[in-house]
Amino acid sequence: MRPVPISGLQPRRKSAALVIGISGYQHLSKGLKYAESDAKIAKDYLKDVIGVPGENIKIFTGQDATKSRIEAEINRLSERKPESVFLYFAGHGIFDQKNPASGNPFIVPYDADLDYGNDTLISLKDIVSKLEDSGASEIAVILDSCFSGEGGIGSEKQLLAKRAIAIEPVLDYRKTLILSAATGRQMAGEFEKTGNGYFTYYLLLGLKGEADKDRDGAVTDTELCEYVKGKVDEETSGAQTPECKNTKGMILGRYK
Known about the structure:
This protein is α/β, with parallel strands linked by helices. Helices cover 27% and strands 21% of the residues. The model is unreliable at 148-155 (pLDDT under 50).
């Protein structure tokens, strides 16, 4: 996946990003292999391809990715009133444990304890709402995760399938671009051959220029979505199909 291409896009000087990757968890035995390394290279792509200034990118990996730190940084992002804001998350996701039928998705921070239901998790709906309240004109949430649909409160059966077992995320967004790793009740898997999540591998390969369908030197969110969906679906023989919502043709990077 390296070296990271240097974007020809004008830097998004008034932009900010939060990157999160969690491979091992404090209270969960089911970990992941590549979530933290995926987050580190995603940070490089956010800076060098998408154009977020390096000093405006915050990254939390492993034990640093606690609920309190993630929520505090989301609040800071919202208060800074950026023109563009990006969130990348690689790790476990899970459904609303108090009301499973709602389909509301939560991300699982490093210090989550499923014995406490939703109390130690972070609501994706709340994250999206706060980012939209920031007034940013460009918002993108990238999720190499999916959201569990089995088991009861406190049960790790919910996290058996690699980056979890997915249900359709229910997100109340107005303008946020959502790029997520899987659809429906699919798993979000890890690509042993490359040492990445399937989704992140093809997401970054697409940003390097492979997704530029019209060969104009720019990769848009629409092109990236089409490319990643097709490649991951093909590589996994239909077992995992990424999902995109609210694509508008936003240019994510130029490579020539």
